[in-house]
Amino acid sequence: MPLKNTESRYGTLSIALHWLMLILIAGVYACIELRGYFPKGGDMRDLLKQWHFMLGLCVFTLVWLRLLTRAIAPTPVIKPAPPAWQAIPAKLMHLALYTLMIGAPLAGWLILSAAGKPIPFFGLELPALVGPDKALAGQIKEWHELAGTAGYWLIGLHAAAGLFHHFVARDNTLTRILPGKNA
User: Fold this and answer.
1) Per-residue pLDDT tens over the stretch 110-126
2) Are 140 and 134 in contact (CB under 8 A)?
3) How far apart are CA 91 and CA 168, in angstroms?
4) Positive or negative, the Cα torsion across 163, 166, 172, 175?
5) What is the model's pLDDT at position 110?
6) Domain assignment of residue 6, yes or no
7) Domain that holds residue 103
8) Which single residue of 28, 34, 103, 117 has CA 20 to 30 Å from 46?
9) pLDDT range class, residue 3, cuts 50, 70, 90
């Protein structure tokens, strides 16, 4: 399988980034959901929150590589071609997902910055983006949580659309992004 996208299939780089991002995002959600099972101030809860931050920052870092690969490589053609009316919802869905992958981690970084807390990243401490401001941290946290909730819906709709295309429309939308040479 070629590294770059072709007219009929995503390349290895795009496929790997797509599925790696799914794993990272699942990890981000798992960490924040599981932390609720542990007492506040506990080591496990703090560890899950740290992993939530670090995995979110991994998403933020890799999304720029994904955008670069989208910009320089062709998008494989869907065969048979879907109805024209599906183009706008598909573009809006991708725009919303990319906005989520940039906006939610950036908001998390801003929350920690405004709260005056360290920003951990695998043994490093990233710089604060803003000065301490508890009120600002609270406002951004509301947006961050709203984005997280919206993310469940966006990811679910994205997955449902892929399954619809594969099992109902019977086109190659899903198989273009599946790993494996004969997918």
Assistant:
1) 999 999 999 999 999 99
2) no
3) 20
4) positive
5) 98
6) no
7) 12-167
8) 103
9) confident
In a domain, 87, yes or no: yes
* Percentage with pLDDT > 90 across the chain: 95
User: Can you tell me the distance from the alpha carbon of 59 to that of 94, in angstroms, rounded to the nearest whole number?
Assistant: 15
Q: In this structure, what token pair is assigned to residue 177?
A: 């992004």
Is 1 contained in some domain?
no
- 120 falls within a domain: yes
Number of folded domains in the chain? 1
The answer to whether 108 and 144 are in contact (CB under 8 A) is yes
For residue 110, what are the contacts with CB-CB under 8 A and spacing of at least 6?
A: 129, 130, 136, 137, 140
Count Cβ atoms below 10 Å from residue 56 Cβ, excluding itself.
Answer: 27
Q: Which pTM value belongs to this model? A: 0.94
Reported as a single tens digit per residue, the pLDDT across 125-164 is: 999 999 999 999 999 999 999 999 999 999 999 999 999 9
Compute how many other C-beta atoms are within 10 angstroms of the C-beta atom of residue 8.
13
pLDDT in tens, 25-76: 999 999 999 999 999 999 999 999 999 999 999 999 999 999 999 999 989 9
Return the closest-CA partner of residue 148 out of 112, 103, 180, 114. Answer: 103
Q: Are 134 and 142 in contact (CB under 8 A)?
A: no
